[in-house]
Amino acid sequence: MFSARQPSAGGTDALARLTWQDFEHLLAEHYRAQGYRVEHHAPVTSLKALSAGVDLRLTRGTESVILQCKHWDALEVEVAEVNELLSVMLNEAATKGILVTRGRFSSEAINIQRRQPRLQLMDGEVLRVLLKLPDHLDTALPGSAAAAPASRKGAKAARRRGASSHGSRLLPALLVLGIGVLLGLFAWKVMSRRDAVADTLPPAAASAPEPARAPIPDLPPAPPPSNDTSGFVSTRTSSSVPPPPTRELLERQRVLEQSERERASQRKNEDGLKVLEKNTRELGSHD
Question: Where is the composition biased (Basic and acidic residues) (predicted)?
Fold first, then answer.
């Protein structure tokens, strides 16, 4: 029979602190990694049934293995439990049987194993190596029920870190985009104001049409020669007819008119520049 003990909840031994559900889970995962298909042959439904162990059936090809977990309250497994497993192997036509406990096996049980090569006994020392359990357990084991809340908290923390890093990368991009939009609006506003100012300015002097030159009047015909044989011209006749304008006078008049036009054009340009300067100062004060 078993020698029973209740594991201490405050103990630091990794195997002793495992619940039977976690222990079964770790065993099943270990044999799945070895290529076995794991079935719950006799699932446990109450704490009373835990003393009989948790049975698993392992199959791989033509190999069929019966595994009994004498884990929950067994300190030492005696010969009777080993013989019980041999009977189950015979009834189930299993090719191999494994008896597991977190405690140890009696010397008589070990002697039976030596005579039965299809029988394998696994005590606590073998389980710690097989399941890669530490000697002292300070945190929950990966894959166990106690580790599930910790893993969920770790996943939440990782998601929060990912969200914060994503936000830190997104903030500079949004800032650059906002600055670009503001610069575009400012440039559009300045160009619109420049167009409005250009519409209010007078036309440039270069685009103004040049006034037509006044035609130069033809010289009057020369007076007919006098029939007076005295060789003197009547004073009254010469004073009543004004002398015709010479080419020099006409050229001087044209130069004066051209100067007047240039001065008028220069005044218009100066007035336009003053208006432009005034509008530019107003635009700068508004911005």
Answer: 248-287
